[in-house]
Write a structure and sequence with these properties.
GO terms for molecular function: acyltransferase activity, transferring groups other than amino-acyl groups. By secondary structure, the protein is α+β, with helices and mostly antiparallel strands. It has a single domain, classed as Aminopeptidase (3-Layer(aba) Sandwich), CATH 3.40.630. Helices cover 34% and strands 27% of the residues. The protein has helices spanning 17-24, 27-32, 41-50, 52-59, 104-120, 134-142; strands at 2-3, 7-11, 63-68, 74-81, 89-95, 125-129, 145-151, 160-165. Strands 1-2-3-4-5-6-8-7 form an eight-stranded mixed β-sheet. Strand 3 (63-68) and strand 4 form a beta hairpin. Helix 3 (41-50) packs parallel to helix 4. The protein is globular, with a radius of gyration of 15 Å. The mean pLDDT is 94.
């Protein structure tokens, strides 16, 4: 578990499937991240078991559930992701609409980055963002990541914006 002033980040469990079902069907999730085809609780359970749980086992990190420490409210997900299509980890996050704009995203992202550096020795992190997602670009700028270029992570994929730390050699994609 990763703790910050107001938040705890913990591994997703099958019991979190109702929350994942809600989050992954938020219209903004579909618009800016993509439709993962999660329509039922069983789909959400499978998503957790075949996505984040596999990442924890393989890499020691992944997308974590973000909960408020004061009352346990489930706010979103955040963490470092190791993709086959990127040479280093990227940071990802998504929050339900009720929790956006309150500083939870930056707090969770800073905690995930600190954990990656201190526990796992991860030095370099990038981000990929759907063009037009200004709120996400602004949050990433607070983390020191700046817009680099448009990239395609797969031949049949849409272009996305790559953000990297300023002054670091460009990430080879």
């Amino acid at each position: 578990m990763i703790l910050s002033e107001r938040l705890e980040l913990r591994e997703l469990a099958v019991a979190d499937a109702p929350f994942i079902l809600e989050l992954l069907n938020d219209p903004d999730f579909h618009r800016y991240i993509g439709d993962r085809g999660i329509r039922t609780l069983q789909d959400a359970e499978n998503y957790i078991q075949q996505g984040p749980a596999v990442s924890y086992a393989r890499h020691g990190h992944g997308l974590y559930l973000v909960a408020r420490r004061s009352d346990g409210a489930k706010l979103g997900i955040c963490g470092l992701i190791k993709r086959d299509t990127l040479p280093c980890e990227d940071i990802g996050y998504a929050f339900l609409p009720a929790w956006r704009g309150q500083g939870y995203g930056i707090e969770a992202a800073q905690a995930a980055l600190q954990d990656g550096r201190e526990r796992l020795g991860i030095e370099r992190v990038v981000a990929i963002v759907t063009p037009g997602n200004a709120r996400s670009v602004a949050l990433l700028a607070k983390l020191g990541l700046v817009q680099s270029r448009l990239v395609k992570l797969a031949e049949d994929a849409d272009e996305c914006l790559l953000l990297e730390a300023e002054g670091v050699e460009a990430c080879p994609i």
